[in-house]
Amino acid sequence: MTDRIQPTCDMDQMEADVTAVIEACGGDPRSAIKALLVEQHIQEQRIERLAAALSFGYVRGRTGVTPTRGSSSHRETTGS
User: Fold this and answer.
1) How far is C-alpha 73 from the geometric centre of its chain's CA atoms?
2) pLDDT in tens, 6-35
3) How far apart, in Å, are the Cα atoms of 11 and each of 5, 21, 55, 68?
4) Helix, strand or coil for residue 64?
5) What is the pLDDT of residues 37-49, one digit of tens each?
6) CA 48, CA 22: separation in Å to the nearest integer?
7) pTM
């Protein structure tokens, strides 16, 4: 029975959030959808930038991080 209570609370909160977004856009549902799509696009760009930075950190190494034992660096594999 608790399974039915939780989704209802989530749906009530979602309805309240939808109402708040529409009200923030002057009551115009079309403007609310546009605003949400713009926000989604901004968040997707942010995720892409963070993913690129994270990938660079793992592939190239981060400044100030000492390599752990067992790691090999490019300098160790090239001769003098």
Assistant:
1) 31
2) 667 788 999 999 999 999 999 999 999 999
3) 10, 15, 37, 48
4) coil
5) 999 999 999 998 8
6) 28
7) 0.55
